[in-house]
Design brief:
145 residues, globular, alpha/beta, 4-stranded mixed sheet, 3 helices, Immunoglobulin-like
Length: 145
């Protein structure tokens, strides 16, 4: 008799967890609040299980993980230019994202899921062009509570 109750409780908890997951929308823009060639917002604080939807509001943009800026065990992702991509992030840590065609112009974003367990490793990744400056500000944001 106890086994069906335990199974029901587990099922209820898993449904409740999925219902609490949030969807965060990040636009990929030619011009936004912080200038040209930007993700908006470029910083997102999420919980494990949340989804991130990258929307190509303007064409020719994509969203993909930057090598070395991904928590251990997390799945990398790479969207196609001008196409929407939705990812569910389950591993805690820092996710560095770039638009490949506009990376040197500073089109990057930082997503912190739960605790930023890989922050030091992500900060150690060498950046190019304006991405260095943008990430400096984003890493400052990531260390705030």
């Amino acid at each position: 008799m106890k086994l069906p109750l335990i199974a029901a409780a587990i099922a209820l908890l898993s449904i409740t967890g999925a219902a609490n997951a949030e969807e965060h929308i990040i636009q990929m823009l030619n011009k936004g609040e912080k200038g040209s060639m930007v993700f908006q917002p470029d910083f997102v604080r999420a919980a494990p299980g949340d989804t991130i939807k990258f929307v190509p509001t303007d064409k020719t943009h994509n969203a993909e993980i930057i090598n070395g800026m991904l928590p251990d065990g997390a799945e990398p992702f790479k969207g196609k230019p001008s196409e929407e991509i939705t990812v569910t992030l389950t591993k805690e840590g820092v996710y560095g994202v770039k638009c490949a065609p506009h990376y040197g112009m500073g089109m990057v974003a930082l997503i912190v899921v739960g605790k930023p367990v890989n922050l030091e490793a992500a900060e150690a990744v060498k950046q190019i062009g304006k991405a260095k400056t943008v990430f400096a500000g984003l890493f400052t944001e990531a260390t705030k509570n």
